[in-house]
Amino acid sequence: MELAASGMMMADFDAIYEEEEDEERALEEQLLKYAPDPVVVRGSGHVTVFGLSNKFESEFPSSLTGKVAPEEFKASISRVNSCLKKNLPVNVRWLLCGCLCCCCTLGCSMWPVICLSKRTRRSIEKLLEWENNRLYHKLCLHWRLSKRKCETNNMMEYVILIEFLPKTPIFRPD
C-alpha cells in the first residue's frame, strides 16, 4: 500500500503544469505591452552594401535621456562604426570586382561579397551582444541589428534597434 502511494507521488512529480507557464507568459506580455517603442538608430553613411550602411548616426536620441549616459551611447556607436570602417571597404572592392566579372562567371563572382557581408553583420551582432552583456541589460535596454524597410524607397536597410526591457517584478515569488 505504501509502495503504491509513493508510486503515485513519483508519477505526479514528473507532471508538467501548463497553468504556471501560461500565467508567466501573460505577465510577460503585459509587461511588454507597457514598454515604450524601441529607439531606431539609422545608418548615416554615404555607402550602403546589401542594406548595411558604412556608419550609424552617433547623435544621442532624446528618448534615452535618463536611461544611459550620452558618452556610453557614443562609445557604443563608435565601436560599431569602427567595425564597419574596418570591414566595409573590403566588401565594396569585392562588390565592384563581382559586378565587373558577373557576366563571365554567371553570377558566381558575387558569392564572396555575400559571404563578406554576412560576416560583417555577424561581427556587428556579436559586438552588440557583448555591449548588451557588459552594460545595457543592466540598464534594462537591449541593442540589436534589425532589417527594416526604408522610409524613402522600397529597399531594405539595417538599423540598430534599442529596445526597452521590462523590469522584473521583485515582489513576485519565484
UniProtKB/TrEMBL annotation:
GO terms for cellular component: Golgi-associated vesicle; plasma membrane. It is found in: Membrane. Residues 54-143 form the Golgin subfamily A member 7/ERF4 domain. Pfam families: Erf4. InterPro entries: CHIC1/2, Golgin_A_7/ERF4. Keywords: Membrane. This is Golgin subfamily A member 7/ERF4 domain-containing protein. It comes from Scyliorhinus torazame (Cloudy catshark). The lineage of its organism: Eukaryota, Metazoa, Chordata, Craniata, Vertebrata.
